[in-house]
Design a protein that fits this description.
This protein has 105 residues and is an all-beta fold. Helix content is 0%, strand content 57%. The strands form two sheets. A six-stranded antiparallel β-sheet has the order 1-2-3-10-5-8, with no helix packed on it. A four-stranded antiparallel β-sheet has the order 4-9-6-7, with no helix packed on it. A hairpin with a 2-residue loop joins strand 1 and strand 2.
C-alpha cells in the first residue's frame, strides 16, 4: 500500500512542460501530473480506458467530438480507442490520472 499527500508530493519532469509522480501496481498506474501553462496535446488514442480528476487549475479536454473546460473537482473518463487531447491556458493544471498497466513491449 502507498499513500500520497497531494499538497506536498514532489513531481519530476516527465517531458518538457509536464511534471509528474507515478505509482504502479500489478494492474493500475496512478499519476499525479502538473501540465504547465500554454501546453497542448492535439490528440491521440490508445487501447485502454483512462480516467481522472482535475485537482487544480483549468484544462480544456476533448474526447471524440465532445470538448469541455474542466476545473478543480471535475472528473473525466475516456473510453478505450477514442481520440482525445487537451490544452492548458495561462496557469498550470494539476491532474490525478488512472490507467491500466500495460504489458511490456
Amino acid at each position: 500500500m502507498a499513500f500520497w499527500d497531494l499538497a506536498t508530493l514532489p513531481l519530476a519532469e516527465f517531458r518538457p512542460g509536464i511534471h509528474s509522480a507515478a505509482l504502479s501496481g500489478d494492474n493500475l498506474i496512478m499519476v499525479c501530473m502538473e501540465i504547465g501553462p500554454e501546453q497542448e496535446d492535439t490528440g491521440h488514442a490508445h487501447a485502454f480506458d483512462q480516467c481522472g480528476m482535475v485537482l487544480a487549475g483549468e484544462i480544456e479536454m476533448f474526447s471524440g467530438q465532445e470538448r469541455r473546460l474542466l476545473a478543480a473537482g471535475h472528473c473525466y473518463f475516456i473510453p478505450a480507442g477514442e481520440r482525445h487531447g487537451w490544452k492548458t491556458f495561462a496557469a498550470p493544471a494539476r491532474l490525478l490520472d488512472v490507467t491500466p498497466k500495460q504489458p511490456p513491449r
